[in-house]
């Protein structure tokens, strides 16, 4: 799928490029980012990890759409949607992170809003959702600000750093 570039006054959302590996490594290699992501997100995050991530997402083997958040020519974060694998796509699950240096400027609130709008309109999705650890107030707020609702608590749902944890489920459905 060819992703259109989406622009705001603060950043651009555009497809991944091979040349993003250095910048992705620099921004992803942060404990405070990794602790809020699934166990598959590496820490420390190496250049090799970034290369592998870009290769995998560009191959689209797992049904992910991945947007890079570009600021001043640098890939400073990623917003992904994991689409359902039925014949007809109708829902997607968000995953996102932003380099720590860029936190608290409203960037992810805008990015999730822009990708949601595009996914409902252009992909004609019926549902978007996201899994959030109980301590991740920032991510919960990003979703609530974009009209997502807390749908429930998924008990003993994921393994994270050797522990089985509950996660909050947030969702938004097409109007
Ligand atoms: C969560 C994350 C994506 C937020 O990105 P961001 O661009 O800093 O978010 P925003 O600036 O849009 O902030 C959204 C709101 O959350 C609030 N917020 C941010 N971090 C917070 C925190 N730790 N505790 C409480 N509120 C927080 C902001 O103040 C803002 O609210 P406001 O609009 O009322 O001021 C970013 O911190 C991050 O990448 N974290 C690590 C990875 C991660 O958590 N990914 C999501 C996994 S579900």
Automatic annotation (TrEMBL):
All residue ranges annotated as the N-acetyltransferase domain in the record: 11-174
InterPro entries noted in UniProt: Acyl_CoA_acyltransferase, GNAT_dom
Domain of life: Bacteria
Any one GO MF annotation of this record: acyltransferase activity, transferring groups other than amino-acyl groups
Parts of the chain that traverse the membrane: none
Pfam families: Acetyltransf_3
SUPFAM superfamilies: Acyl-CoA N-acyltransferases (Nat)
Name listed for the protein in its UniProt record: N-acetyltransferase domain-containing protein
Organism: Candidatus Taylorbacteria bacterium RIFCSPHIGHO2_02_FULL_43_32b
